[in-house]
Amino acid sequence: MRPARGGRRVTDRRPDSQAFDVLAAIETAFGHVSRPEHFTDYRHCCECFEHDETLRVATPDTIGLAELGNPGWDPICFVSVEGFHYYMPALARLALGRGQASYVEQFLFHLQWPPDRIERMNQEQRSALRQLLAFIFDTMFEDIDDLDREMLVRLLSLG
Description:
By secondary structure, the chain is mostly helical. It is built from eight helices and two strands, in the order ββαααααααα. Helix 5 packs across helix 8. It is globular, with a radius of gyration of 15 Å.
């Protein structure tokens, strides 16, 4: 693990320096986002409460596939836009995993809905996200199933 701006640490999960540069750009763009008091509409139901608690006890440095890796029980499905932006450095790190350690398909899904997850990003954040998506396209395209490839291409076209 290498230190990144904002006091967080960025894991270079891929051997090349380009992955580190992409994660560093995400950290620079999103590392200043304030931690929300709550991450979900925790009063809505027991599931929202449990997902909120999962996100409240973790940080972008500590959260991993143990908490997020089950597509049927992924707290990011319910997270607020502020919580999504707060956890973006972790989501990017996990998206660059390989094989069983990959979160890329869930990550692409989470970028689709709700649309304001991207719409409420500032220019620096959008640029860092585009850099991440381009890196995924260039280095992981063959590892992604057809439907998620379509999502990736659609997300890249948002510019």
